[in-house]
Amino acid sequence: MDGPVRTSTDAAAGPQPYYRGNESSLVSALKTLLFFTILMVTLPIGLYFASKAYIFEGSMKMSSSDSYFYAAIVAVLAVHVVLALFVYVAWNEGTPKGKGKDD
After folding, report:
1. What torsion, rounded to 10 degrees, do the Cα atoms 40, 45, 51, 57 define?
2. What is the rounded CA–CA span in Å between residue 50 and residue 45?
3. Which of 21, 23, 71, 93 has a beta carbon 3.0–4.6 Å from 52's, enabling a disulfide?
4. pLDDT by residue (tens digit) across 66-100?
């Protein structure tokens, strides 16, 4: 019963070292997400109230009910623009930035 004892070379080597190679890309992705989250909250709300007060009721002299409608359209368009920008930035975030062809 006292046969040879097997030892794993992986266990003898200890734990794998911690590589920080992907940490900068994680921080970059979180910064991008935080930026677009703040933009998604502030831009449509700000554009809604600003366009309602200054453009539709102020410059165009629309009624209050009409200005609500058109200001909501401006806010929805702002949401779509922010979403499109986020998708564009997220899509191009991991691609290398070389100018030449890689043939």
Report:
1. 160
2. 9
3. 71
4. 999 999 999 999 999 999 999 999 898 877 766 65
